[in-house]
Hints:
By secondary structure, the protein is mainly β. The chain is built from two helices and 28 strands. The strands form five sheets. The chain has an eleven-stranded antiparallel sheet, with no helix packed on it. A six-stranded mixed sheet has the order 9-10-16-17-14-15. Strands 1, 2, 5 and 8 form a four-stranded mixed sheet that branches.
Amino acid sequence: MVSSAQELLQGSLFTKEGTQNIPLEGASLYWLGTTIGTTTNEKGNFSLALSKDTTELIISYLGFKTDTLTIKNQKSITHFLMASDSNSLDEVTISQRRKAIQKSYLEAQNIVNVNSAELLKAACCNLSESFETNPSIDVNFSDALTGTKQIKMLGLTSPYLLITEENIPMVRGASQAYGLTFTPGTWIESIQITKGAGSVINGFESIAGQINTEIKKPFSDVPFFANLFTSANGRNELNIQGNHKFNNRWSSGLFLHGNQRTQTMDQNNDSFLDVPLAKQINVLNRWQYTDFEKGWVGFGSLRFMQDDKQIGGVGYNPDQDRNSQLLWGSEISTRRIDGSVKVGYVFPELPYQSFGFQSAYSKHVQDSYYGIRNYEIDHESFYANVLFNSIIGNTKNKFKAGLNIAYDQYNELVDQFDFLRTDRSFGSFFEYSYDNLENFSLVGGIRADFHNNLGT
């Protein structure tokens, strides 16, 4: 059996401004008399399949002279375009308002993108409340007592969905019950909702669906943002965000969030609080490194959160009524630390090939009691993922391959009983995608996972 890969012509397009070489983004290249063509990326680089019918390559760019090159045995070229002598072109401005909720009809997966414009429709929100204006997801109270919310998609509740933050598992384990309230809405840049089977890249937990949130980036976010919210039912919220660019490569952002609810509400007169009394402090520091010339990009994040809730009967005083048989009440105190590192590299000479690594650590400590029963949990988690992207023959055939590991250690105390559990999993995956760039796309993937408690 004989196999051959399609040969590629690679190169870069520039223009001269004084002594500087300025890359041309969006320049068109195509073979004369064919429909085979491509455009340059932000670095002026391109990759184009060689044509068997012609050696004449047409290069054009608005405001520059169109060039025709004869390509014989070259596999790589660097070309400079000259500015057009004609000054008769008038400026044309085309603008379009992006929809707040977008569904891609070019992806093989069923993905809905929700941007910040849709999130602004909620006057005050955390992640659990961000879906109240979205018809794709149902938001319900998991129980009337604690006031916590859960989401439902395709008939499945949140424990059966993978909820990630920038593709790192976030709402899981000890944070499953209250984790949706730990991410302030003003921190969110966008949300991607995958309904049904998604990509094998993100793990076996995403088979039924995935919700991924993207946090605002220091490099592209506004330098300063402040938001204050208050309501008649006693809910107050303050958000302060600041970003600073140290130079063209380094930038950092500091996100501060605080909320509290101090007013008791019992509109149905059942002598129980309708919503918990609560107080939360949330601090996030992000760093971003970007080097477009060398193809590197990286993110580092460190986050601390303290969340306190009180539920139960109206008039319950924890200092006086705890362990009392006369008035039922509960307090839930959560402390959480998260840290993550993400590194990506795009090969400058091969813009279709990239490498990525991400890892995250979290420690979740919850101290609580419900009436006369105590419940405590200490959950430590570590996650790492390695990903490689490239093509097979040409850019219509792409593949992704990689490995991921997860480690979770649980230490639970229920009254006087200790429960210890350690979960370890290791997975590998391969995903192939084909896109003819016109009317057909195909995605196929396979992954294998080993879990010390669940098996393979």
